[in-house]
Design goal:
The complex is a heterodimer of chains A (294) and B (244).
Chain A (H helix, E strand, L loop, with lengths): L2 H12 L5 H37 L4 H8 L2 H41 L6 H16 L2 H15 L7 H27 L2 H9 L4 H31 L11 H12 L3 H33 L5
Chain B lengths: L3 E10 L2 E11 L4 E5 L6 H8 L7 E6 L2 E2 L7 H6 L1 E4 L11 H11 L5 H14 L15 H13 L5 E5 L7 H17 L3 E4 L3 H7 L2 E6 L2 E6 L1 H6 L4 H11 L2
Parallel strand pairs in B: 3-8, 3-9, 6-7, 7-8
Antiparallel strand pairs in B: 1-2, 1-4, 4-5, 9-10
Helix pairs in contact in B: 3-4, 3-5, 5-6
The chains are: A mainly alpha (294), B alpha/beta (244).
Amino acid sequence: MTDRAAESAAGAAEAWAPSELELERRLTRKRASRRSVLIALVSTVVFAAVAGWLVLSSPGWADVQQAFFNPEIAKDSFPKILEGLWLNIRVLFFATIAVAVVATLLAVMRSLRGPVWFPLRALATGYTDLFRGLPVLIVLYLVGFGIPALNPENRISVAVLGTVGITLCYSAYVAEVLRAGMEAVHPSQRIAARSLGLSHAKTLRLVVIPQALRKVVPALMNDFVSMQKDVGLISVLGAVDAVRAAQIATASTYNFTPYVVAGLLFVAMSFPMIRLTDHVSARMAAREQQGGTV
Amino acid sequence: MSVLELHDVHKLFGDNHVLKGVDLAVDEHEVVVVIGASGSGKSTLMRTINLIERVDDGRILLNGDDITDPDVDVDKVRARIGVVFQHFNLFPHMRVIDNVTLAARKVHGTAADVARDRAVGLLEKFGLGEKVEDYPDRLSGGQQQRVAIVRAIMTEPELLLLDEITSALDPMLVGEVLDLVRDLKAQGSTMLMATHEMSFARSVADRIVFMHGGRPLEVGTPEQIFGDPQRPETREFLARITHR
């Protein structure tokens, strides 16, 4: 060993290496976690096996399999349903943008202080009360069949009407989430911003809303996932989306498999968002905990 | 046997070696005060003893039990240690009496009326008799911190950890909290505390530990540390903190 190597080795020793005791403890912890994983794995497998056995051994399984899980029909109906899903995705895209804008406006309107703003505040409050109470399906019927009847000459596409209906409902929900977030920002933040001379509007835009958004990201993502599947409801207006395409295929084959296919496609569509939501929530929780193992 | 013994305790946050082999013992009825600059590892030291942070090496013994053993039940260990925090950390949705009796009722299984009697007795003794049914936000900072101390001693812990308990207080309110700590010392509580209040440290401590660079650099009686510090780092720290 050269002098330099000896020196760096001494430096490394100086830099501390875990003792026998610590290495033993790490081994114990690793063993304990391995045991936990094993127990979780075994219990999962046992549960799945029991559930599977219960279904497969039931007397009607053969008929159910034929009616709901027919691979031939699944294959045949798949392209049409996928085409329908593309409509759902477009509706979702535009509705999301519209909801973001309308909900923010509503939340800001509801947070306005002072008697001058009473009409706006009352309007926003009335709106959120009404559309949070109304079932989405009824809103879709009213918008989808009511608005065209106003002007029978100009036909508006049912997809557009469906987008409007979804936007009306979800804006109310999201506005309330945003408002809760804005109220959760500590009053001292507003005071600090106003003390710097920022106007009410600038305080909201530059200080309150950025902090509010961070607080409500998980709730917003939850609403988005929920909206992702509710766009399937536009099928009641006659738009040929994934659900409608499945319905058509079912009517022609007397088999429910297309519904299962459509359902799986919706799950597949929402899956990335659900995982992303979990990831973001976990990251935010970790950031707030600031170390510690409690 | 000491109430608390630390043997070569290390703690790393990533590459940041915060505790570099801490050896320390606190005997029964002894008050040990940890001083040192911000970032010297005082708070981390407190947190490792309460098992909020897991040590990366070394051993911590609480009345002879190795509490750094991986098989140890951390909740049981924490139930034996009382902790008072810089920011009080009272539960805002509970009245004073419920804050104080929570651990007794829910962890130690004390009957509610027994716990209540004891809590009211302690609160009255420390001048908080009027505040029993109030919520924490109705109390001044000093009162809140005194409630937090009562909450910590309610279950008669073997060791009391006080982590800069006056740092978030108005100077006018520091005195009432420190008087309470003096009372606890007179009753024989075993305490380990981190503080920036040098005059208080001097009057209440049996031993002073000067933390520097993640190690207890100098340990001694208040007379030794404040009167005749041996290390240049200690002298520099004391000069800076007392000549502000």
